[in-house]
Design brief:
The chain is of the alpha+beta class and 283 residues long. It has one domain: Arylamine N-acetyltransferase fold (2-Layer Sandwich), CATH 3.30.2140.20. It has nine helices and 13 strands. It has helices at residues 4-11, 21-34, 40-43, 52-61, 68-81, 200-212, 217-220, 256-265, 273-277; strands at residues 37-38, 86-93, 106-116, 119-123, 135-136, 142-144, 150-155, 166-171, 188-193, 223-228, 231-236, 239-244, 247-252. A hairpin with a 5-residue loop joins β6 (142-144) and β7 (150-155). The mean pLDDT is 95.
Length: 283
């Protein structure tokens, strides 16, 4: 069962958002500012569980973060409890890839949400590369965010086509991303997706591949990110970048104690110094 009050306390909301587009936007902003994106349990050898009880315990009760399969399972459960029906979609992440690069595998999950009668929206509380706001599922839909970026949704092909049916794009400062974006403000692909229906086994299989396959981003790197009120913070290995109010600061994490403190104070991730010291980054 979903403990909405405990979830709202975790993300710092004192009221229950309405089941409408404004409520969806407020909830997603609060979620992304409070619950950091991270993959650290992979390096700790703990595996990634994506059932509802496990993600609620990890992200809410134990105040950890998680990656897309965890974040959007929790977020989808919350939306359903608030009266916004939703289902998962799988996406191919294009951020940081050349335009003519071969299509990558579907390793990202987002949500298709009914936030108002007769109109579908996409919602995503688990994209670690930048902030993605809710957008109506309409060709040409656009939105701006407080980090100075614009976001656009385009229909680019038939459902089931090789490149997916929809393309999410972003134009904005590279400093408000995890660093994979190209250093200019033109429209850049974030990910593509279609509307194929998923079953739980689809998500379990992709989550297992993403969290265990050698030589991939999530099995090779230690990453964390979080949305700030007017910016974005990203941590890759020991390199920390904080962008807010148009100003960017960078520094190197000194040691395990500094890493644990930064996770707690900036990213909202509760990982003890002893646990951090076990990461390959410091071991």
């Amino acid at each position: 069962m979903m403990d909405i009050d405990r979830y709202l306390a975790r993300i710092g909301l004192s009221h229950t958002p309405l089941a409408d587009p404004d409520g969806l936007a407020a909830l997603q902003q609060a979620h992304r500012q409070a619950i950091g994106f991270e993959n650290l349990d992979i390096s700790l050898g703990r595996g990634i569980r994506i059932d509802s009880a496990s993600v609620f315990d990890k992200l809410v009760v134990r105040r950890r973060g998680g990656y897309c399969f965890e974040q959007n399972r929790l977020y989808g459960d919350v939306l359903a409890a608030l009266g916004m029906a939703n289902r998962p979609l799988l996406a191919r992440v294009r951020m940081g890839l050349a335009e003519d690069a071969p299509p990558p595998p579907r390793t990202h999950v987002l949500l298709l949400v009914r936030a108002e009668p007769g109109r579908a929206w996409i919602a995503d509380a688990g994209f670690g590369g930048s902030y993605v706001p809710p957008l109506p599922l309409e060709d040409g839909a656009e939105a701006r965010t407080r980090d100075g970026a614009a976001h656009r949704l385009r229909r680019i092909g038939e459902m089931g086509g090789q490149h997916g049916e929809w393309l999410l794009e972003r134009a904005g400062p590279v400093e408000a991303t995890d660093g994979r974006a190209a250093p200019h403000g033109e429209w850049q692909a974030q990910y593509t997706f279609d509307l194929a229906k998923m079953v739980p086994g689809d998500l379990e299989m992709v989550n297992h591949w993403t969290s265990t396959r050698p030589d991939t981003r999530f099995t090779m790197l230690h990453v964390a990110s979080v949305v700030l009120p007017e910016g974005f913070a990203a941590l890759s290995e020991r390199a920390l970048r904080i962008h807010r109010g148009g100003i960017t600061e960078t520094r190197e994490i000194a040691d395990a104690a500094d890493y644990a403190t930064t996770l707690r104070d900036l990213f909202g991730i509760a990982l003890s110094e002893a646990e951090v010291a076990r990461l390959p980054l410091f071991a």
